[in-house]
Amino acid sequence: EESIVSPTSASGESCVGDLLRRHRPDTLVVDQPRQHFGQAMEETLRGVRAADVRLVCAVRGSFQTLLADWAMRRCLERVPLFDMAVVLVPGKFDEWHVIKDLPGAVARMAEKKPYAYEARWLDDCDKLLAEPRMGGGV
C-alpha cells in the first residue's frame, strides 16, 4: 500500500485539510511526505502552504536523490513549497549543510550548475563554525 495515512476522510475532505481547519497549527512537521500522501502529496503540501502554516518535511536521501524523485522535484520547482533545506551529512553527526535559496538551488541543479550552500559544523569545543561553499553541478 502506497499511503500509510489516508489523504481523505470518509467525507472526502483531506485529512490534513481537516487538521488545519480544526486545530489551526502554526507549524506542521511531516516525515516522508511521499510515503504518507502518495499521489496526493503535492496537492496536500500546497494546501498546507496556502493555509499559511509553516511546513517542515523530513526526507531520506541526498539533495540529488530528492531531485530525482519527480513528485518531490515538482513540489520544489513549481511555486516552491520550501524556501530552504538543511541537509545532514552522512556519517558526520556534527556537520550539516544549509541551502538558504532552495528554489535557486533546484533551478541550478536542473541546469547542471553548482548551487550555493553554507557548511556548518561544531568544532571540538562545540563552537558553531560556518563557511559558504558550492555543491552539485555536473
What is the SS-derived class?
alpha+beta
Taken as a percent bin, the fraction of beta residues is 25-35%
The helix content is: 25-40%
Shape: globular
Strand and helix order: HEHHEHHEEHEE
**How many strand units?**
6
Please report the distance between the alpha carbons of the first and last residues.
36 Å
Summed up, the helix count is 6
Largest sheet: number of strands, sense, barrel closure: 4 strands, antiparallel
State the main characteristics.
alpha+beta; 34% helix; two-stranded parallel ribbon; 6 strands; disordered N terminus; 6 helices; 27% strand; four-stranded antiparallel β-sheet; 138 residues
Report on this model:
This protein is an alpha+beta fold and 138 residues long. Residues 1-13 have low confidence and may be disordered. The protein starts with 14 loop residues before the first helix and ends with a strand. It has six helices and six strands. It has helices at 15-23, 33-37, 41-50, 63-68, 70-77, 102-110, and strands at residues 27-31, 54-58, 85-88, 95-99, 114-122, 128-136. A hairpin with a 6-residue loop joins strand 3 and strand 4. It has a four-stranded antiparallel sheet with strand order 3-4-5-6. Helix content is 34%, strand content 27%.
